[in-house]
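Contributing new records

If you add data, match the layout below exactly. Sequence lines come first and carry their own label; structure lines follow with theirs. Keep one chain per record. Anything else will be rejected by the validation script.
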Amino acid sequence: MSTRDFNGAYLLPLFAEIEQARGDGAYRPLPAPAPASSLATDDAPLGPYAASHLIRTSYTAGLAHADALRRLTVAGEVDPTSPWTLLRGALENFATGLWLLDGTGRAERRRRALSLWDEDMRNRHQHELDTGHTPSGGG
């Protein structure tokens, strides 16, 4: 498939939404939960392992994937696999945020958040073992 063969007209509404989510060269992040909100109540006992942090970063990562496709399309650099791999990355990230929010109750939403944090830490630990490199600092 050549770039001239790609007809991404069906993506124009998505691209318009992405452009709205961008500010001065960066994505506008979702706001922190309001102090009296249900999400803030979910987060309260989780300390630094807040669900809202995962939701906000999943949203931003989804935007980044979709925006990468927008930029490739605008530049005429679309190859046969980019639309599908980038849209999959966007959907997985957006779905993660929705999964965290969609627990049947507060305990379930907290369990999901802690489960995802645990998986992320396990993946990071495995990466450090595989590469023999542990980043310095608190990150």
